[in-house]
Amino acid sequence: MENKKSSFIGLVPFIIFILVYLGSGMYFQAKGVEMAFYQLPAPVAIFIGIIAAFALFKGSITHKFDSFLKGCGEENIIIMCIIYLLAGAFASVSKSMGGVDATVNFGLTYIPAQYVTAGMFIIAAFIATATGTSVGAVVALGPIAIGLAEKGGISMPIILAALMGGAMFGDNLSVISDTTIAATRTQGVEMRDKFRVNLTLALPAAVVTVILLLIFGKPEVIPEVQEYSYSIIKVLPYILVLGLSLAGMNVFVVLTLGIAVSGVIGFAYGEFTFLKYAQGIYAGFTGMTEIFLLSLLTGGLAVMVREAGGIDWLIEKIQKIMTGKKSAILGVGLLVGLIDMAVANNTVAIIISGPIAKKISNQYKIDPRKTATVLDVFSCIAQGAIPYGAQMLILLGFTQGAVSFLDVFPLLWYQGMLLILSILSFFIPFADYYINKNPWDWSKEELDLD
């Protein structure tokens, strides 16, 4: 597999993976199975693609296996997988000691009832940013959002759309989100740098969304003031992890400290025993098993595909619509967005398109911090707007059929604003202040062009 020529055959295993994953989802959807696109585990689908690679590509089994292992053991892949484990442990332990409930109740206590729709966006954004999961924010806040809509005369579709927008905002920006981890590691950039570039797009979109929610999301009847119990100290681990990450501390140290601090709070203010604490950490590890395996296997397959000329073939085709940096970065956004629509998982979409985006970034001298941002932004936009994504399926499931996707879709203002601002930023570089102030050192990229 030393052939460096481009070849469509080299891309076939990835296509098989997408078709198997997408096809199974469509099949179960037609059968009326809940969470249809999540019935077939993604690592199994990628394993089928790996088998296809071994069958289709030229060379000895030994050489192909060596290439596969080289991809699995690639430094960024291993780093990404370890971060997944630590992020999962932190999220699990923090939730077990009451951090999520405390954060939700704290927000509901201090947001005035007449601003509850905009408040739902803000609370969801904070929870998703703190915990690194949009699904977690939807699960935690969905029943609350529906209850507030029913009691306060608020349009249920608009408060659900607010919740979805806030959840995707946080997922996109969180330093412990698997999408952030995948986007930064595949592009070789620091999380804090990607956060700063990303914030220039996400924050204006969020501000516009909040204003719209304040105007159009007012309740017909002001809900009765309720008392929610919370402990502010249980919110501190999230603030600590976010603050230290943005300050530039090593991500492994930050997450380990977060796990430790959450544990101390759980012992002092919760019901933690050493065994429960240990079980919480392990539950976090196992909760990341699917994405861990997917990243590892995809890393191996990516090297095989690259050596077989698959990535070069795809880039050649993409280049036909690229005339420069602007169209190239737009092509990266469209690529990851379309893959997300196919596989209904933003992390999977980033892992698949990451190596391709990296090569395009190097070739067109696009700042990799911007490329990482585009990967995360466009995958989150797509994930937060498709009817068969986990977030939307769970959210609408809470309504028991009272609200349909078509009711919510026109009100997904955050996703719409983020898409508009992102596309505009390709042609009007209003979001490039941090990049221009801190130019990328391209000399270190020359070694990675192959």
Number of structurally distinct domains? 1
Order of helices and strands: HHHHHHHHHHHHHHHHHHHHHH
Question: Overall mean pLDDT score?
Answer: 85
- Quickly count the helices: 22
Share in β-strands:
under 5%
From the helix content, strand content and strand pairing, which structural class follows? Answer: mainly alpha
Radius of gyration: 22 Å
Helix percentage: over 70%
Overall shape: it is: globular
Strand count, sense and barrel status of the largest sheet are: none
Low-confidence stretches: none
First-last Cα distance: 14 Å
Number of strands: 0
Task: List the main descriptive attributes of the protein structure presented here.
single chain; 22 helices; mainly alpha; globular; 450 residues
Report on the structure:
The protein is mainly alpha-helical. The protein has one domain (9-448). Helix content is 73%, strand content 0%. It contains 22 helices and no strands. α7 (134-152) runs antiparallel to α8 and α9 packs parallel to α17. The chain is globular. It starts with 11 loop residues before the first helix and ends in a 13-residue tail after the last helix.
Give a quick precis of the structure.
This protein has 450 residues and is an all-alpha fold. It is 73% helix and 0% strand. The protein has one domain.
